[in-house]
């Protein structure tokens, strides 16, 4: 009969065993069998000394006994030497010519370990959060740099690079979906005269005002860009020629009615509008809009002209 009562026989939180002086197992509960990977088995009569790793069985057996028979008290590592091991708080003593072992998990140590794991998890979560925050800032900064590289610094509309990128994308979309795409090219009338008469500061005010007016009179899906100098381009996706001409006239009338500070006279602009032909390259669309613009200039300025179709140009 084992030295411990029957209610401890299936207990896993405590390991109980009886061994002889050679390390042969005489009795063991479920907790000890689990430590030596013998769950469900009862290897009574087998030598289990090898499962006592630190301190090892030979060292333990050589210890002298205290008054109460105790030969070892402290942490003990039990398990497979090259496999799974557990460190428990143990006591081994001699009684009736046998060695009795009682080992239990160190609850205080487990709680400290759990606290450490929780702290590490908290630090890991905080680190992940910090990294996500840094990544968001980097993404925002990158987006700002990209946007800045495609924005005209004076007027706030897109620059030529933005126009080229958008034109390629919109032509591909229009060809793929079969929708309409128009280009409006605008040029401020007598802009050199403004610079020569009122100075470049006044000229910059005119360009800024015109850029703002273009943004206010176009949709969110339209692309507004400064093409160069006093020349601007508006791409109008999903828009036919008739509606694009109406947009150009609306912008033209608004500019003529706009009072620009430091200028006594109204400023006007001329416009050329062209609708993309099927599979027409972007350069061809802009070239036809530009030809229409110069037609408007030579016809008296402050007006809208329509670009000829590619067939008629041939």
How is this structure best described in words?
The chain folds into three domains: 6-105, PAS domain (Beta-Lactamase); 109-149; 160-313, Reverse transcriptase/Diguanylate cyclase domain (Alpha-Beta Plaits, 2-Layer Sandwich), CATH 3.30.70. The protein is rod-shaped and about 125 Å long. The protein is α+β, with helices and mostly antiparallel strands. The longest helix has 43 residues, at 107-149. A hairpin with a 5-residue loop joins strand 4 (70-79) and strand 5. The termini are far apart. The strands form two sheets. It has a six-stranded antiparallel sheet. Helix 5 (191-198) packs across helix 6. Helices cover 43% and strands 23% of the residues. It has helices spanning 30-35, 57-61, 107-149, 160-177, 191-198, 200-216, 241-256, 282-298, 310-313; strands at residues 14-19, 25-28, 52-54, 70-79, 85-95, 98-104, 181-188, 223-228, 231-237, 269-275, 304-306.
